[in-house]
From TrEMBL:
Superkingdom of this protein's organism: Eukaryota
Function summary: Catalyzes the reversible isomerization between hydroxypyruvate and 2-hydroxy-3-oxopropanoate (also termed tartronate semialdehyde).
InterPro entries: HyI-like, Sugar_Epim/Isomerase, Xyl_isomerase-like_sf, Xyl_isomerase-like_TIM-brl
Pfam families membership: AP_endonuc_2
Naturally occurring in which organism (per UniProt): Plutella xylostella (Diamondback moth)
PANTHER family xrefs: HYDROXYPYRUVATE ISOMERASE-RELATED, ISOMERASE
Protein's name in the database: Putative hydroxypyruvate isomerase
Active-site residues, record numbering mapped to chain: 143 (proton donor/acceptor), 241 (proton donor/acceptor)
SUPFAM superfamilies from the UniProt entry: Xylose isomerase-like
Enzyme class name: isomerase
Domain Xylose isomerase-like TIM barrel stretches: 24-257
Family (UniProt): Belongs to the hyi family.
EC numbers for this chain: 5.3.1.22
Keyword Glycosyltransferase: no
Length: 262
């Protein structure tokens, strides 16, 4: 098996002003697949047309989250907003089905104060999501996000994420393992990747601390880590959720240098 990389259009190919333009740029950059945030401001038909025209595979899409400019990253853990969560989920499923995406990143939200009621609401909403996603054979993934990058994000604990996945007990709820966040939150990458892998539904990478290409200066030896991910049995797409230090295409030399192809 050889590692498969997909471009994260929310971070890469900023040379294009819109997500729609970035599909074509990713194709031109040599990619075969992409993942995206929710394409705010674009209709389902517009996004589907851009994706279809590019010929790329859509691997994952983020849940509709609310106003990103206001820091709204979902309401999955917010009591009293269950109906909004369900509406956001169903709208995202419509986009996922139109794009052929088999994974949806279910974002938890940002909270000033966390109570047991938030955890109860979060788990109940994830149970609902797993049941709904099962009907369309889509996998929901949840991602712990570090507090340095996104202060007050609700889910920033891998143990709690795995505990919820175990309790929901559905193949349609898995862990999104972003190595960038894993290093920030708890480090000990070799051990934690191996331990978490049985629950993983998607992997993403970026260098720490500046979130640039894997071969830029930073804390992580990605030549080793990518081989380790493979040795732990992961065979699916790896999302490149990094901010290019310069031009996106110019920064892709690491793929060949590490012994891979797009």
């Amino acid at each position: 098996m050889r590692m498969k990389f997909c471009a994260n259009l929310s971070f890469m190919f900023s040379e294009g002003s819109t997500i729609l333009e970035r599909y074509a740029l990713a194709k031109d950059g040599g990619f075969k697949a992409v993942e995206t945030g929710f394409p705010f401001g674009h209709t389902l038909e517009q996004v589907k047309a851009a994706k279809t025209s590019s010929g790329l595979e859509q691997v994952l899409i983020n849940l509709r989250t609310g106003d990103l400019s206001k820091g709204e990253l979902g309401v999955t853990a917010v009591p009293g907003k269950e109906d909004q969560f369900k509406a956001d989920l169903h709208e995202t499923i419509d986009y996922a089905k139109a794009l052929g995406a088999r994974k949806i990143h279910i974002m938890a939200g940002k909270l000033d104060l966390v109570t047991p009621k938030n955890w109860e609401t979060y788990e109940n909403n994830l149970k609902y999501a797993a049941d709904v996603l099962k009907k369309d054979n889509i996998v929901g993934v949840i991602e712990p996000i570090n507090q340095h990058s996104v202060p007050k994000y609700f889910l920033s604990d891998y143990n709690k994420a795995v505990d919820i996945i175990k309790r929901v007990n559905s193949p349609h709820l898995r862990l999104q393992l972003d190595i960038f966040h894993l290093q920030h939150i708890c480090g000990d990458l070799s051990h934690n990747i191996k331990t978490l892998m049985p629950y993983v539904g998607h992997v993403q990478i970026a260098q720490v601390p500046h979130r640039n290409e894997p071969d830029t200066d930073g804390e992580i030896n990605y030549k080793y880590i990518l081989k380790h991910i493979e040795s732990c049995g992961y065979t699916d797409w790896v999302g490149l959720e990094y901010k290019p230090a310069g031009g996106t295409k110019d920064g892709l030399g690491w793929v060949k240098d590490f012994g891979y192809t797009l």
